[in-house]
Amino acid sequence: MNILNRRSTIFLLIVPCLLLSPGCTTVKPGPDFLRVQELVEQSTGFPDTYNPEEPMISHDEIIALLADGLSIDEASRIALLNNRRLQAQFMSIGVAKADWVQSGLLSNPSLDMLLRFPVDGGRSQIEGLFLQNILELWRIPLRKELAQHKLDDTVFTIARIASDLVAETRTTYYQALAADELQLLAERNLENATQGYQAVRNLREGGVATIFDENLARGPLLEAQVSLRSRQLEARDARRRIATLLSIDLDVNTLILLDSLPDPAVPQYDVDSLIEIAMDARLDLRAYQAAMDAAGVSINYESRNALGELSIGVSVERPPVTGETIVGPAISATIPIFDQNQAQIARAEYQFVQAVKSFEAIQLKVTQDIRSIADHASTVTLTLAFYESELLPQVEQNLEMATTAYSSGQASLVALLEAQRTYLEAKTGYIQSRQESAAAMLRLEQAVGKPLKQIE
Questions:
Q1: Is the pLDDT of residue 271 over 60?
Q2: Tell me, what CATH number does 407's domain have?
Q3: Is residue 43 a part of any domain in this protein?
Q4: How far apart are CA 80 and CA 96, in angstroms?
Q5: Angle, nearest 10°, between helix axes 413-448 and 392-407?
Q6: Enclosing domain of residue 362
């Protein structure tokens, strides 16, 4: 009889554990990684994005892409696949997925055992208590929903970071192209300054020019030498920024850029239509929406926590007198008298209002950003048209006339140097405006949240 009772006791203690065991739980964020890839493709047009569960792009593949030069699309693709900061951000998805898995699990049951031995001899006393909190069954659905919204927030946020990386890479590429053109302009300016100085020196040796004229011509030569060094450094630094965004280690002097600054185009978009598209396409807006939804669910979840804890289970006892095993139900409950979770409910409510206000604020910012960027793009385009139709032809004509007049002795060296300086400034401003025009279109595309060519 004692053997049977002992077996019954063991059975009653083990069976509840087996019934409540969820089995092997694993974290599989693979589908969420694919969601990021799809979102990035929608917002940038590039289908290839880093996936922690797929083989990384190899060093040899990158070297092969760089062998014949680097295009702007290749730079964007390598950045999406190889940028280490973006790869680190992807781990946040695994963390959020782990939290989602954890949200669907019951807490572990408790098992209390008590064993007493009589000092004066006799039978020992055994008591056991197995309890499981059953109110969690009511809270798990809300807990999973809350974790899902947080996971969605993370997915949208990482996708937006990847999209911003593409925009930054392309902007930096254009900066490097502009730096190359400015370096070439500085080289030509140095050649002209060198030739001008040599011509004035020859004139002085021939007794036509004075030492003052020679020193006057030497000033622009020295300035041109300094300017060229600065432009060369800017070109190298721009390439280094590209290499950083691509997470590659190479001699930037060997990096050849294949593309050129795009021709300026007047934006032909209705701003109100762009704003409407952005409200649906912007990934950061969708992340804010997910955060707001999570804050709303959190209020209901904290309200359910106000009930405290209720655990049920099995109680097993073998008194020392009779030696017979006594089995019965067990209940343990916390009584919410002093703490009814009011503080956490209030906290959740404030966080919800905060999330709503933040969402409204970013919506308003998106609206103004698109209007501002579209206005800036139009202004830069008009400025470029002015450079091409008015300013550049004028300063080129002035330089030609000043050169002819100086050669014939009808103009002073000061007039020639001023014409050269004005031409150099106008040409520099034109190159910088072309770079600004290309960057403005990228910012407009980034503000809308999808490629502009898909809107046309």
A1: yes
A2: 1.20.1600.10
A3: yes
A4: 21
A5: 160
A6: 2-22+32-454
Mean pLDDT across 143-169: 95
Q: Can you tell me which residue has the tokens 């600065």?
A: 230
Instruction: List, as one string, the DSSP characters of 272-320.
Output: HHHHHHHHHH-HHHHHHHHHHHHHHHHHHHHHHGGG--EEEEEEEEE-T
As a whole number of angstroms, the distance between CA 438 and CA 181 comes to 15
What does the longest C-alpha to C-alpha distance in the chain come to? 134
209 within a domain of the structure (yes/no): yes
List the one residue out of 197, 193, 202, 162 whose CA is nearest residue 78: 162
Tens digits of residue pLDDT in 427-447: 999 999 999 999 999 999 999
DSSP string, 2-36: HHHHHHHHHHHHHHHHHHH---------HHHHHHH
Show Cβ contacts of residue 69 under 8 Å, excluding neighbours closer than 6 positions.
256, 257, 258
Q: Is 248 exposed, middle or buried (0-12, 13-18, 19+ CB in 10 A)?
A: buried
Q: Is residue 157 part of a domain?
A: yes
Q: Report the alpha-carbon distance of residue 310 to residue 315 in Å, rounded.
A: 15
Q: For residue 139, how many other CB atoms are within 10 A of its CB?
A: 17
| Bridge partner residues of 313 (DSSP) | 131, 330
- The whole-angstrom separation of Cα 450 and Cα 166 is 12
Helix, strand, coil percentages, rounded to 5, for the chain:
70, 10, 20
Q: What is the total count of domains within the chain?
A: 1
Chain segment 202-229, per-residue pLDDT in tens: 888 887 778 888 888 888 999 999 999 9
- Burial class from Cβ neighbours inside 10 Å (0-12, 13-18, 19+) for residue 36 reads buried
Considering the domain boundaries, does residue 27 fall inside one? no
DSSP 8-state class, residue 326: E
pLDDT value for 424: 93
Specify the pTM: 0.86
